[in-house]
Design brief:
mainly alpha
Length: 241
């Protein structure tokens, strides 16, 4: 497989690996991005190597061309001096160099084609990396937002249970507070009527006495209501003067 073919295969493999990865998006995407950048550096080095080889061959070809001109001049000088033997050797050397120049020109042409292809691949890969970076940041942002949303949902699940516990605690506290307020009111009423000391001196259970007092007060309130209703009915039934 040629150098260009190996590079193309490697790039396709890297891109396919990116699609097939299914682990943590944030770390995997960052890792894949760095891998692609490394591959871009490899392509850049390959371009530099091919360019260097081409330049080296071009320098050698230039020297051969200089020698061709030199041997051509020597052949002409030898012929003017009727030295065909020397002219023949000069022409032979010239033709050998011309043949080498032809071979070098073909190699240089091939290297130029390879260089052009590598430069194109590098530009394509660079564009793909730029696109991948944009998509990477977008996916990372979505993943982090989803992760934050999941954490919030989990937190709210715990908060819901805590709120239920707090609600039950509040109900118990409210109930105890209402009982304490009723107790305080009853104690004030006993103190105002002078019954508090009697209750304490007799040693009765004060809670039982407070309950009884509360019940008596409820009965008296209902009786007062009935008296008022009966009185209203009697006034209504009396004949008018």
């Amino acid at each position: 497989m040629s150098l260009l073919g190996r590079l193309a295969f490697t790039i396709r493999s890297k891109l396919s690996a990116l699609i097939n990865r299914a682990s943590d998006p944030a770390s995997e995407l960052d890792y894949s991005y760095e891998q692609l950048r490394d591959e871009l550096q490899n392509v850049t080095r390959a371009v530099a190597d091919v360019t260097t080889q081409k330049k080296r061959l071009e320098i050698h070809r230039r020297r051969l061309r200089e020698n061709v001109e030199k041997y051509d001049g020597q052949a002409r000088a030898a012929m003017r001096q009727d030295r065909e033997d020397l002219a023949k050797r000069a022409v032979e050397k010239k033709q050998a160099h011309v043949s080498q120049i032809t071979e070098l020109s073909e190699q240089i042409s091939n290297l130029q084609a390879t260089q052009d292809q590598l430069v194109g691949k590098r530009a394509e890969l660079s564009s793909q990396i730029a696109q991948f970076r944009t998509r990477k940041e977008t996916v990372k942002a979505r993943y982090e937002a989803a992760e934050a949303s999941a954490r919030v949902s989990e937190a709210f699940t715990g908060v819901g249970e805590t709120i239920d516990d707090v609600g039950r605690t509040m109900e118990r506290a409210t109930e105890r507070t209402e009982r304490m307020e009723a107790r305080a009111a009853a104690l004030e009423e006993l103190e105002e009527t002078g019954q508090l000391e009697n209750v304490l001196e007799e040693g009765d259970d004060i809670d039982r006495e407070l309950d009884r007092l509360s019940t008596d007060r409820s009965v008296e309130n209902e009786l007062d209501t009935l008296r008022a209703e009966l009185a209203s009915e009697e006034r209504t039934s009396e004949p008018a003067d």
